[in-house]
Structures are given as structure tokens and as C-alpha cells.
Amino acid sequence: MSDRPAAPALAMFLALLLGATCIGFSGIFVRFADVGPAAAGFWRMVFALPVLAAWMALEAAGDGARGVKAGAILPIALAGLAFGVDVVLYNASLGFTSIANASLLGNLSPVGVILGGWLLFREKPTRRILGALLLAIGGAGLLVLPKLGAAAPLSGAGLFGDGLAVGAAFSYAAYILAVRRARNRAAAGRIGLISSAICAAFCLVAALGLGEAILPRSLTGWLAVAALGLISHAMGQGLITLALGHYGAGAASLVMVWPALVSVLAAWAIFAEQPSPAQAFGGVAILAAVLMVRKG
């Protein structure tokens, strides 16, 4: 008899995919926010905290008010700090490179997560997961390939922005691994609330240290940071944290290349950045990779 675990329920897969879709709009919201990168991260957490607090309360009422088990505080704190670094670096990268470039490089986290899960948690990836990983990264590359040339005139500035996005990717990989470890010791709502509060404090300190404008200066700016908190974080990260209790870290992070496709389509609709045939093929490749993850 095989001891291979059953595939996650369809509801958890849809939650993971919906969460990734919400995150795909974060770059669009940051572009409309009229505050600094770290300040945008701070407001993202602030608007998400009430929702996460309500989620934790409902979760506790349904499960009998479970607390945090021993050993959970450290990974939760690390998750908050890692996500703070990810948010600041990704938001900053959007000031130097295109949304498509930032989305591709910022979603290379599956590489770090699969390696980290293998080394730290002994989660050896299956051939299907490794194949899906290569397919997803290749598809993400096709999504932004035409825009790599467009970013070339930025020279040093473009390379700097790309470097920030790569840093964000590895920071997000650390976040996924930390949440994965914490989910064995605490409920999703509690992890989301505590880690987001830590992330908010980190982003505020960073914004003050960098001398950024903290308060949005327009209604559009306020709506943008509110959307960051309610859609990209409370809904997006919340659903992903929930799904990580049912998926291994490698499989879950692989689906996170989905936001690259969402970002390109959103940029097409909002900024009239029409995708090329290569980008269309990239989208198909990502969809195929997502289906491969669904089958485990």
C-alpha cells in the first residue's frame, strides 16, 4: 500500500489560487499609492489587522480557543520580519523596473522554498513538482521576456530594481518556510495576525528611517493602501496561510508564480500594456504548472 498523502481538497486549492490572485494586484495598488515603499507596506498591514483579528476570533470560537503551542513564537516572528523585508524590497523595486519584471523576479521564491523545504523539513520534491517548477519559471520568463528589452534603457537603475525584486523573492521564500513551520503549532488566523503586526512595526520603522512620506496625500492614495491591506494582504496572504496547513511548502510556493500572470493581465487592462504572443504562451505554461501542483 502507498503511504503517499491524499491530494489536498479542492477547496484548499481554490483558496491557494484565490490568495495568489489577490497578491497579483499588489503591484498595481503600490503604483497608485502616493507614499514610500515601506510606508505602503505599513498601511497594508494596518488595514489588514482588523480583518485578521476577526478571523482569529472566529477561528478560536470554532476550534475551542486554541493557543500558540511551544516553539511557535520564533517562526511567527521570523515570518513577520521576512514578510516586512519582502514588502519593502518589492515595493521599492516598482520604482526602478516594470511591474512585469518585478512580478517575475519577485515570484522566483519557489526556488528558495523548495530547496529550503528539502534541506530544513526533509520535504523531498517529487519529479512532478520539480517539472512543474521548471515549467512555471519558464512560463514566467516568457511573460516578461518582451519587457526585458524595454527595461534595458534604464541600465543601472533597471538592474537595481531587478536586484531588489530578487531580494524580495528570497525574503518571501523565508516567509513561506516560517509560516509552514508555524502552522504545525498555531492556527492560521493567529499566525496571520501576529506576523502582520510584527511586519507593520518593521515597515513603520523602515519608513521613518528612510524619511518617507507616511500619510497618503490623495483619495486615490488612501484607496490604494486600503486595497493593499484588505485585498492583497488580508484576503491574499490569509488564504495562503490557511492553505499552507494542507499543502507542503514547495507545492504552495510554486502556485505563487500565478501572481505574475495576474500582474501582466492587470497591467494590460489598466496601463494598456498589451501582452505579446510570448507572454500568452507563458500564461498557458503557468496554468499547466498550477494544474500539475493540484495533482500533487
Description:
With 296 residues, the protein is mainly α. 77% of the residues lie in helices and 0% in strands. The chain has 13 helices and no strands. The protein has helices at 10-24, 26-32, 37-63, 73-93, 99-106, 109-121, 127-151, 156-182, 188-210, 219-243, 249-254, 258-271, 277-294. α2 (26-32) runs antiparallel to α10. The protein is globular, with a radius of gyration of 18 Å. The protein starts with 9 loop residues before the first helix and ends with a helix. 55% of the residues are buried. The model is unreliable at 1-6 and 150-155 (pLDDT under 50).
Give a quick rundown of the structure.
This protein has 13 helices and no strands. It is mainly alpha-helical and 296 residues long.
Descriptive tags:
single chain
- Helix and strand composition category: mainly alpha
What is the helical fraction, as a range of percent? over 70%
Percent strand equals under 5%
Q: Quick one: biggest sheet?
A: none
- This entry's quaternary arrangement is single chain
Give average pLDDT, whole number: 80
- Order of H and E elements: HHHHHHHHHHHHH
The N- to C-terminal Cα distance equals 18 Å
Count of helical regions: 13
The shape, in one word, is: globular
Low-confidence parts:
1-6, 150-155
- Cα radius of gyration in angstroms: 18 Å
Quantity of strands, as a count: 0
